[in-house]
From TrEMBL, chains A, B:
HTH arsR-type domain location: 1-89
PANTHER family associated with the record: ARSENICAL RESISTANCE OPERON REPRESSOR, TRANSCRIPTIONAL REGULATOR, ARSR FAMILY
Cleaved signal peptide residues: none
Name recorded for this polypeptide: Metalloregulator ArsR/SmtB family transcription factor
Organism whose genome encodes this protein: Hoeflea poritis
A Pfam short name: HTH_5
Keywords: Arsenical resistance, DNA-binding, Transcription, Transcription regulation
Amino acid sequence: MIENDLFKALADPTRRTIFEKLAHGSMNASDLRQGMTISQPAMSQHLAVLRKARLVREERQGRFVNYQVDPEGLALIAGWLAKYRAYWPARIDALKDLLKDMDQ
Amino acid sequence: MIENDLFKALADPTRRTIFEKLAHGSMNASDLRQGMTISQPAMSQHLAVLRKARLVREERQGRFVNYQVDPEGLALIAGWLAKYRAYWPARIDALKDLLKDMDQ
DNA sequence: GAATCAAATAAGTGTGTGCTTATATGTTGT
DNA sequence: ACAACATATAAGCACACACTTATTTGATTC
C-alpha cells in the first residue's frame, strides 16, 4: 500500500529534513549528510524509505548516487488531500492564486 | 511540533480509516467503531492522536462525544505540500479541474 | 587486479507505538 | 445517591522503527 509507505516515510523528522534538502536541489547521499549528525548507513536507510514511498528518485552517477525529488509521491499526497477538499474551502482562493502563478 | 504530530497521526492505517469515516460525516466514538474490529480504548487512543494533530475536533453532547474533521490539520498538510509546488507541474491540469468542480 | 572511495546491506539494540485488560471519569435517568 | 452507559486513562506487552558498528557491493583509478 503506497499511501501507507508515504505517510510512514514522512512521519520521521529526519526524513522530512532530507526531503526538504533535496527539494532545494538534487544531491548525492554524501552531500546530504553535510550539516546533519547522521551516520552513512542511517542516511542510506532513510533514502531507501523515501524511495519506497516515491518521494525520491535515485540516479547512479559513477560511484555517487544522485538523489532528487520524485514528483510522484507529492502527487499522491495531493491526491489524498483532494479527497477531503470539502473541508478546506477557505483555502480555495489561495490555491487558485498558486495555480495562476504556475501558468507563467 | 505540529507537523510531526500530523504525519505521525496519518502514518497509521487505522487512524486514516477513522479520519475518512469522519470525513463522510461526524460521529461519536461508539458509532465510529461500527464495522471496525477495534476495542473501545484503542479507538479512544486513536482519537486522541488525531485530536493532537488537529485532524479531528471533539464536541461533547451529553454522554456522547461527537467527533468531526478539523480543517486545520488538512490546511497544514496543504501548506506543507505547497512548499514543494515546484515539483508537481504535471498535475496542474488535474488540480485545475478539481478547483473548477469546487466552484459549483 | 589491487587500492580507494561511495553507497547499501546485515545484525544487534534501545525506544516508540498500537494493542490489550482493568480501572477511572463523566453524564444521564431513576 | 445509585445504576447504567460513553469515553478516557493506566499499565503492561509484543512488535516496529531508527539508530549503531561491521561488512558487502559497486565503481573508479592506478
